[in-house]
Amino acid sequence: MISLTLSRREPALPGATAKEAHPSGDGIRDLLRDTALFVTSLAPGGEPKSVDEVQEQCRKLARDFSDALHRRGYADEVCNDAEMAQCGLLDEIALRCFKGATRSAWELQPLQVERFGIHDAGERVFERLEQRLREPTAQVDLLECYSAVLGMGFVGRYAREGEAKLDALVSALHARIAKLRPAAAQPFTSDHTARRAFDWLHRLSPWATAGLLAIVAVLVWLVWHGALDVQLAHLLSGKPQS
């Protein structure tokens, strides 16, 4: 089955402490998997949900995310920034989902009020992101978290300021992440293994061939069943699908 490969194990960034850079050797982005599933479920065409159900799911997602961040040993300020970004996303997605009186009720008591006592996460998240981008040794795991949240559709203040400005910020964010955590080189090799495999297949008995075909059918099903994982990987990467 296709799986998300969101955790990265890299050495600490120069000038950063082990706790600030990669406290547990894992990143933050994979901790947003359940959030991405939830966002997908509220997308147009998703299963309708009641306000109470959405509120409880959002609370649980926020609690679980906070607990996971602290278990991985991130500094309090990193946890706070990441949690506020997730919280702003969940509120924004919920407000898109609901209309009329239910939307108004959510606006009066959003998740960010429960968690942080604020009503302006759409401003604060981007203020913190811009501040993080200016840091000489930015916390790359946190930047990847911001990238994932933006990839899931969070726009905050840029709903007013316009898509062009948001695109410019996203480009700067991706460029900084690429500089701090360059992609590993992918070696390319070529040989004649395909031809040898084909010759080997011809020597199999009909029963063995039938068994292999059954295995292939199962693998095809697993690949299809993993399509959601692929979509989530695109969401969490914060980059548009090609």
UniProtKB/TrEMBL annotation:
Translocase among keywords: no
Top-level taxon of origin: Bacteria
Assigned keywords, A-Z: Membrane, Transmembrane, Transmembrane helix
Matches recorded under InterPro entries: T4/T6SS_DotU, T4/T6SS_DotU_sf
Transmembrane feature ranges: 204-224
UniProt region (Disordered), positions on chain: 1-26
Domain Type IV / VI secretion system DotU: 29-224
Keyword Transmembrane included in the entry's annotation: yes
PANTHER family reported in the protein's UniProt record: DOTU FAMILY TYPE IV_VI SECRETION SYSTEM PROTEIN, MEMBRANE PROTEIN-RELATED
Protein name: DotU family type IV/VI secretion system protein
